[in-house]
Amino acid sequence: MDKKNVFFWTLYDFANSITTIVFFLYFSQWLVIDKGVPDFWYNMIFTIGSVMLLLTAPILGGIADRNGKQQNYLSWITILTFFSFLGVSFITLFFSHKVFLAVLFFLIANYLYQFSFVFYNALLHYIAPPEKWGRISGIGQTGNWLGQIAGLVITLPLASSAIYLVGEAGRAQTFLPATIIFFIISLPMLIYFKLPKQEKTDNKIILKEEYKNYWNQFKELLKSPSMGLFLLAFFFFNDAILTAANNFPIYLEVEITKANLIS
Questions:
Q1: Are 85 and 108 in contact (CB under 8 A)?
Q2: Which residue of 61, 88, 139, 240 is surrounded by the most CB atoms within 10 Å?
Q3: Pairwise CA distance, residues 244 & 155, whole Å
Q4: Which helix (H) or strand (E) is 25 found in, with range?
């Protein structure tokens, strides 16, 4: 087990958790509370992103598993995620009236962020033996939690207007620092993480065939009645959890506002 790789792998989870908590907390409030966009359209961002993932993640994940380029794909996804979040940051700060453009960049950023885990999780196979996967995964999850705490601590003074940087005041102040910190802390993973040498493969990749194989495998999976019920139950359960989590910041802000009005 390469301890350096474990450290870089955990540090990456810490880094992207900073943007996760900041954007999921404050962007929803910026969009719905500050800009008056119905929460239905905020939730549609995640619906569209989920459909995009369904159509692309299994295929590209399978391709990466065959050619062993998970790290390369993760690096490109991370860079694209950074620029997408950077787009959201600049739009909310300097062009806050362009709400649709901010939503579009956030949709892309969220999609890429979720997509990155297809390659990030696959790297666990290379950094530890199977008997230690549970332990290393737990370490990574700890990095995730610490990243969320750090993100809140760093951006709370900005969101509360105790500190002002540039552009629109309030919640929009939080996005740019979180994005920059995310990219800086993720750099060690992109630069220093080393995979063992792998055999080169000359398999030609034809997307049409990949989608055909994916569909055939999915149909085979559904032939098991218990698997179909499991997937259906997971869909409804997971959808309910994600809906509650995504809308909690909006609900929290509304209730706090009501409490302040009553008092």
A1: no
A2: 88
A3: 23
A4: helix 3-29
- Token pair of 173 as six digits: 């102040």
What CATH number is associated with residue 32? 1.20.1250.20
Tell me whether residue 128 is in a domain: yes
Question: Is residue 188 assigned to a domain?
Answer: yes
3 state DSSP class of 223? coil
User: What does each of the 263 residues of the chain score in pLDDT, given as a tens digit?
Assistant: 678 889 999 999 999 999 989 998 899 889 998 898 888 888 889 889 888 988 888 888 878 777 778 888 999 999 999 999 999 999 999 999 999 999 999 999 999 999 999 889 888 888 888 888 888 999 989 999 999 999 999 999 998 889 899 989 989 999 999 999 999 999 999 999 887 766 655 566 666 777 777 777 777 777 777 877 777 787 777 767 777 777 777 766 666 665 565 65
Structure tokens at 30: 């910026």
Residue 69 lies in a domain: yes
